[in-house]
Amino acid sequence: MSSLPSSPPEQDSDEHTAGTQPRLPADPRYARFIVDLFGVMAYGELSGFERLSSDARFSPTLHDRATLGRLAVIEFEHFEMVSHHLAALGVDVETAMSPFQPSIDSFHERTRPADWYESLMKAYVIDAISDDFYTALAGRLDASTQELIGRIQSADEQGPLLQERLQEALADDPRLASRLALWGRRLVGEALTQAQRIGIERAFLGALLFAGAEDDQEKETLLLFSQLTRNHSRRMSLLGLTA
User: Fold this and answer.
1) C-beta neighbour count of 7 within 10 angstroms
2) Tens digits of residue pLDDT in 186-206
């Protein structure tokens, strides 16, 4: 695996200054990574919008349907933010997304919820793991990319809303606990496997984050994924569930 710089390369201009047109980085390897990163983010948000829009129709109440509809709108707003940023970089969003479509679609097929409660749990788990993952990346990336990730996360209302509704559902029907705990464990396992698969296919993760020997990259990647798993366990504990 080829190594990218351990810190972001210098940009052609101070692109994070207000009013300055962003550009792809001059380093072709880092530029390729940025396009891949935004491509997987965009398709993740687009598929999240489609999933939540579809699942909303199974909601037990109109209030719940409206809540999931609002969450779907937020996903689409995130997609548009990434799409507009790619366009400013001179990159077509469909071209950037297309390499990730088969893998992400396959993930969603493997993790199709059995009912509305599993749909809620899936949104809760995947949204949070994605946020953790992009937060871990952001500190190693250029200012323009950090700024976009920060804007997306600051506009994210999903976590608290999903947590509150899941807590209400579990209080109303404690029998859901064992099923949703098991579902949560499956989801986090599938999500981490998916991230590893994309990283291998696109040389997407280790080469940028962990420059150096391949053994060091593997070790650092495992440490990152261990942290993602610990964060997931804490969130499950907030629901009163065992991860």
Assistant:
1) 10
2) 999 999 888 777 766 666 555
Evaluate whether residue 9 is within a structural domain. no
**Distance set, CA 103 to CA 12, 107, 235 (Å):** 33, 6, 26
Q: In CATH, what number is assigned to the domain containing residue 122? A: 1.20.1260.10
22 assigned to some structural domain: no
pLDDT of residue 217: 65
Residue 141 lies in a domain: yes
The separation between the first and the last C-alpha atoms of the chain, rounded to the nearest angstrom, is 33
* Residue 156 counted as domain residue: yes
- C-alpha to C-alpha distance for 133 and 136, rounded to whole angstroms: 5
Lowest mean pLDDT among 94-103, 144-153, 205-214: 205-214
Positive or negative torsion for Cα 50, 87, 158, 224 = positive
Judged by average pLDDT, the poorest of 10-19, 183-192, 200-209 is: 10-19
pTM of the full structure: 0.83
